Amino acid sequence: LWERVRPRALRREAAQLRALKFPMTTMNRLMKLNPSMNIRSAEAAEVINYATVLITQALVRSALRERASTRAIVQVSDVRQACVNAQELQFLAPLDSTLDASALAIRADANASSNLETNEAAAQ
């Protein structure tokens, strides 16, 4: 009954969104990075997944619109510029400071372990 009440364009957009979900294992791994998110329900994970898809789509569309070229490769500089210029994406600007300390620490640990593996491989 509710499906018939909603406009056809909205139903089509909802179907497209359901098809574009990120893998739940990846989303759960990302959600575990936030120390304040101890308990999460399946519904909350699904909503976060859909929100991530929508924000990624908006970011890429804005970056492509900002560049206005025929090349379809979006670079980090394009994303930074889109975050500055689009009002709805300004909460991401500056892009470097959107990562919290835990994400930066995880990145530093990953870089240190990869450097250690590279040095061990070079020593052999």
Structural account:
With 124 residues, the chain is mostly helical. The chain folds into 2 domains: 2-93, Histone, subunit A (Orthogonal Bundle); 94-124. 68% of the residues lie in helices and 0% in strands. The protein contains 6 helices and no strands. It has helices at residues 2-5, 8-19, 24-32, 42-67, 76-85, 101-123. Helix 3 (24-32) packs across helix 4 (42-67) and helix 4 (42-67) crosses helix 5 (76-85). The protein starts with a helix and ends with a helix.
What structural class do helix, strand and pairing data support?
mainly alpha
Q: Examine the secondary-structure arrangement and name the CATH architecture of the largest domain.
A: Orthogonal Bundle
What is the approximate shape? extended
Main sheet overview:
none
Name the CATH superfamily assignment of the largest domain. Answer: Histone, subunit A
State the order of secondary-structure elements, H for helix, E for strand. Answer: HHHHHH
Mean pLDDT: 74
Query: Total number of β-strand segments?
Result: 0
Number of domains: 2
Poorly predicted runs: none
Q: Helical segment tally?
A: 6
**Percent in strands:** under 5%
Helix content estimate = 55-70%
- The name of the CATH topology of the largest domain is Histone, subunit A
Classified by CATH, the class of the largest domain is: Mainly Alpha
GO molecular function: protein heterodimerization activity
InterPro entries: CBFA_NFYB_domain (IPR003958), Histone-fold (IPR009072)
Protein name: Transcription factor CBF/NF-Y/archaeal histone domain-containing protein
Domain Transcription factor CBF/NF-Y/archaeal histone: 21-82
